[in-house]
Design goal:
Distance between the termini: 53 Å
Shape: globular
Keywords: ATP-binding, Nucleotide-binding
Radius of gyration: 18 Å
Strand content: 15-25%
Number of strands: 8
Pfam families: AAA_31
Protein name: Cobyrinic acid a,c-diamide synthase
Oligomer: single chain
InterPro entries: AAA_dom, FlhG, MinD_FleN, P-loop_NTPase, ParA/MinD_ATPase
Order of helices and strands: HEHEHHHEEHEHEHEHEHHHH
CATH superfamily of one domain: P-loop containing nucleotide triphosphate hydrolases
């Protein structure tokens, strides 16, 4: 009952007022991983909730073309998704869903692959619609697909920041470094931040991050900030089965405290600098029009 009451309270406190900000562009954040199974989507969802709980206006965009599951993790049924907006069967207000804590999100699924073949007219319509909600936000988080596809590369290189999620598993470490290497070689201005998930303790998390950071420094001359780590916590699996974010279902768990600390670290870093992509319109222009 305590968990259910906690969820109801968060939903009842949702902020439904969308007020455009004066000349301040939303910061565009992509969350990626070198491979699947590292808990990227779960991190993204709870990171967004942590930012929201700290008073920031957040929009979460499920941009995983093949394995969209943000709505499943929240137990929220989505009547509309991006496809309906592209086909002009629904406007932006209809495809925006509300999850726990008043978190606003756009469900993934069908429609993502059609973005790259839009006509000029449809692209302008899409941009105008997204801008209506994006101009009211502080942060827009894109949960991208695992690995590095052509579409994911466009997401990462077009955003303000890329949060790379890995685990202490050797293959995850190797793949995370490989992803950053490919992106950096093509788009050296890309800003990365590293998160180690499913760490046994702080020592293991630091050892994992050090391996990646030292390789990046030696071979890429790239300094990658270590944002922090998420503990290996059985509550996370339990929350997934309940289809409730772990920070809502188990707010006192180690994972919930870790994701709160990560959000605080992010806000305390140089993320307060102005958006380099001039808000959502600049992001979409770089993302969908880049040759």
């Amino acid at each position: 009952m305590d968990q259910a009451q906690s969820l109801r309270q968060l939903v009842s406190n949702k902020d439904t007022k969308l007020v455009p900000k004066d000349g301040v562009s939303a910061r565009i954040i992509t969350v990626c991983s070198g491979k699947g199974g590292v808990g990227k989507s779960n991190f993204t969802l709870n990171f967004a909730l942590a930012l929201k709980a700290m008073g920031r206006k957040v929009l979460l965009f499920d941009a995983d073309i093949g394995m969209a599951n943000i709505d499943v993790l929240m137990g929220v049924s989505s009547k509309y998704n991006l496809y309906h907006l592209l086909k002009r069967e629904a406007d932006i207000g209809q495809i925006i869903q509300t999850g726990p804590g008043g978190l606003q999100f756009i469900a993934g699924g069908s429609g993502m692959d059609e973005l790259f073949s839009l006509s000029e007219s449809d692209l302008n319509y899409f941009t105008t619609q997204i801008a209506q909600i994006a101009d009211t936000m502080d942060f827009i988080l894109f949960d991208t697909g695992a690995g590095l596809s052509k579409e994911t590369l466009k997401f990462i290189s077009s955003a303000d920041d890329c949060l790379v999620v890995t685990t202490p598993e050797p293959t995850a470490i190797t793949d995370a470094y490989a992803l950053m290497k490919v992106v950096h070689n093509s788009f050296p201005e890309t800003s990365f931040r590293l998160i180690v998930n499913q760490a046994g303790d702080e020592r293991e998390a630091k050892a994992t991050s050090d391996k990646i950071r030292m390789a990046a420094s030696r071979f890429l001359q790239l300094d990658i900030p270590f944002l922090g780590y998420m503990s290996s916590d059985a509550h996370v699996v339990q929350a997934v089965k309940k289809q409730v974010p772990f920070s809502v279902a188990f707010p006192n768990s180690a994972a919930a405290k870790d994701v709160q600390r990560l959000a605080q670290n992010y806000l305390a870093a140089d993320s307060a600098e102005p958006s380099k992509v001039e808000g959502i319109k600049g992001f979409i222009n770089r993302w969908l029009k880049r040759k």
